[in-house]
Specification:
Helix content: 40-55%
Strand content: 15-25%
Radius of gyration: 19 Å
Order of helices and strands: HEHHEHEHEHEHEHHE
Strand order of the largest sheet: 1-2-7-6-3-4-5
Largest sheet: 7 strands, mixed
Amino acid sequence: DHVKLTSVKATGTSALLEIGKDAQQIVVGRHSLGRVARWFLGSLSESLAEAAQVPVTIVRILDDEESSVQDAIANALTPSENTVTYDLPGSPLPKNQRPIVVGVDGSETSRHALRFAIDLAALHHAPLQVMFCWQLKDLGVIPGYENAVAPVKVGQRRAEEILAELMAKAEIPDGVKVSTNAFHIPASKGLIAASRYASRLVVGSRGLSGLDAHFLGSVSRQIVNFAECTVTVVH
């Protein structure tokens, strides 16, 4: 009774941007374009994640074709007469018990993503994992190292301070279990690795779009393309 079906004569991106401009979020599936085809043609999910003014959730399902290609690669690279399958270890937990992971960096955009993830965790009674994947360039000027490169252990301490400051301002409802971690790794690599163990990955969009996003890439674009779980991009 609460489902409304709407037909619009427009491209998928334009139609969904118009219909969903005042929505809580827009939800789409992820089509299985190959990496080269995706680079040249783009995709609906990428376009929405870049252009929407509301959160966009992309549901990813590994299709049979992609799975069979991965199996073929595994067999080609395994010197054995036995048939092998592409099945790397993932989370031992069922999907409904895996944490929601939100990537933060201390920016206002990541504050929006954190608020969205907290509400999501409360709604689904799921644990929340807050991750700050950092590199030295992400930390700004570290006191005492204004004219020198700070050691990794000093950067780690500064990253943990930024994360603690962010969490101190967050309003976390009773009953939501929150864990925090700072990792010295590029954000896209760290969060894509986390997606194998998460039920949902939440990230903020920093506004990189058009040719800049196409040629330079962005964390949210890479995550939309390569994450192994459902992804929500918050604007």
